[in-house]
Write a structure and sequence with these properties.
This protein is an alpha+beta fold and 161 residues long. The protein contains four helices and seven strands, in the order ββαβαβββαβα. Helix 1 crosses helix 2.
Length: 161
């Protein structure tokens, strides 16, 4: 994991969404070993780390996670149900649910995840997590897996002032 300064190319009216911003990045890469072991274990690690940062370092009380199926997956797909069960069994503090995608997302495959918080009665989407096929394409190996997480550190700092 590291903290990176990135560029936002979209224009937003929200003054908290600046063209340059800092984000905490986590990336896990590995091989498929069956039963969605990589996906659910790495998702658990990323969500636990995100939760600990938001809870312990920022003192946030209201944190939850939404798993959003994408690219042919739905709430009943084994990838989604086993990931949900895995997280719930191992960390009862993380509030996690599966929500309807609402629109097609072509960036991630399998699932994308939103980490949400409440500060001063306002809901913020502070984290974005998802499976990418970049290493699979780069190495031309269908067994390659990659999970990324981004936590909006700069936005978090601004709203916690």
């Amino acid at each position: 994991s590291n903290i990176s300064r990135v560029i936002r190319t979209q224009v937003f009216t929200n003054p908290d969404f600046t063209p340059h911003f800092s984000v905490l990045c986590m990336v896990s890469c590995g091989k498929d070993t069956g039963n969605f072991n990589f996906e659910k274990e790495e998702l658990f690690k990323h969500l636990t780390a995100s939760y600990e940062i938001l809870k312990k370092h920022y003192g946030l009380e209201r944190i939850w996670v939404e798993i959003i199926p994408c690219k042919g997956y739905d709430s009943q797909s084994p990838l989604i149900t086993s990931s949900l069960s895995y997280i719930r069994e191992r960390n009862k503090d993380i509030e996690v649910s599966v929500v309807d995608p609402g629109y097609e997302n072509n960036y991630y495959y399998g699932f994308r995840v939103k980490v949400k918080i409440v500060v001063n009665d306002v809901v913020y989407e502070i984290g974005d997590v998802g499976l990418l096929d970049w290493t699979r394409q780069l190495l031309a190996n269908r067994k390659e897996r990659m999970l990324t997480t981004g936590i909006g550190f700069q936005l978090l700092h601004q709203i916690m002032k």
